[in-house]
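Quick log. Single chain, no ligands specified.
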Amino acid sequence: VVRRLSKDEQLQVVVLGDPHFTADVRRSMPRIEGAIREIESAIRPIVEERHLEWGDLEQAITAGGRREQMLVADGIHMTPEAHERVALALEPLLLRLMQHPHSVTG
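-> predicted structure:
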């Protein structure tokens, strides 16, 4: 999907890496962290090759501390505060893309 989207020269693609769940979820699903890393490692070269933008949700929700509290009780979905952190983290990127739609990361 990422490769297909990136072929459209009029389309700027922003790829978001997932948050890595709570410690409880990772303990109950020990292979989930490896699966996330595998998916991200398959996507990241395409992002770099096609000069797409990468937004790291894990980094965004971790930035303000209290990482475990940024996910709701299911340990997977983000809280409103986490969504706000993500929006704040992505705002400079999105503003730059609106001003220079075909700029390259870096």
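The radius of gyration is 15 Å.
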